[in-house]
Amino acid sequence: MDFFSSMDISASALTAERTRMNLIASNLANANTTRTADGGPYKRKDAVFSAQQPSPSFGSTLSRIGAAPGGVQVAQIVEDTSPPRLQYDPNHPDADAKGYVALPNVNVMEEMADMIVATRAYEANITAAQAAKSMALKSLELGR
Asked: What confidence tens digit (pLDDT) does each residue in 3-17 have?
């Protein structure tokens, strides 16, 4: 694996984790949104990651036969299909005839745990990119 491949892999992971963090922030911001443009409460969103294939060039195809994929990408953003939480609040403007309000299916504690995991993954990829940069600089120093 060359220097640019490792940087591309780290960069793709940083982009994917940034998207994941944006979705987590959106979920937390809408944790109490009971009415959306689609009607009903906000639905939690999550990113689905998939392996990214390396860019196809003739030289890279020959050298990468049997090699690992070239990073990660956000394959899709999906809405959580779990039902909304029901809370009894007959004074709420969105309460049904029985007095229950449909709240988003966002668990704040789960979102915070996901945020910590995404932050750690982001930090790990920054460290990997810095290590690759450091090794490339050291190899250039050897040529002097």
From this structure: 778 888 899 999 999
State which residues form the domain around 93: 3-142
| Counted domains in the chain | 1
**In whole angstroms, how large is the CA radius of gyration of the chain?**
22
Helix/strand/coil for 63: helix
Strands 100-103 and 45-51: unpaired
- For residue 52, the model assigns a pLDDT of 83
Q: How far apart are CA 113 and CA 18, in angstroms?
A: 16
- Which residues fall within 8 angstroms of residue 38, CB to CB, at 6 or more apart? none
DSSP classification of residue 52? P
The pLDDT value given to residue 88? 95
At 49, is the secondary structure helix, strand, or coil? strand
